[in-house]
Amino acid sequence: xxxxxxxxxxxxxxxxxxxxxxxxxxxxxxxxxxxxxxxxxxxxxxxxxxxxxxxxxxxxxxxx
Length: 64
What we know:
The chain is flat. By secondary structure, the chain is an all-alpha fold. It is built from two helices and no strands. The model has no long low-confidence stretch (mean pLDDT 82).
């Protein structure tokens, strides 16, 4: 095939390749355990980001 791989021309192949990559990624990460510190940090970051989003929405709500 000339011109390289074009996912728009072959969506079936693109879907198969994507599912294979996802499957390999899941296999690779399956044996790893998340430490308590990493889990706590993830929750803290999620709470901070949620607070920022709520703050931005509230700021626009006050302005208009």
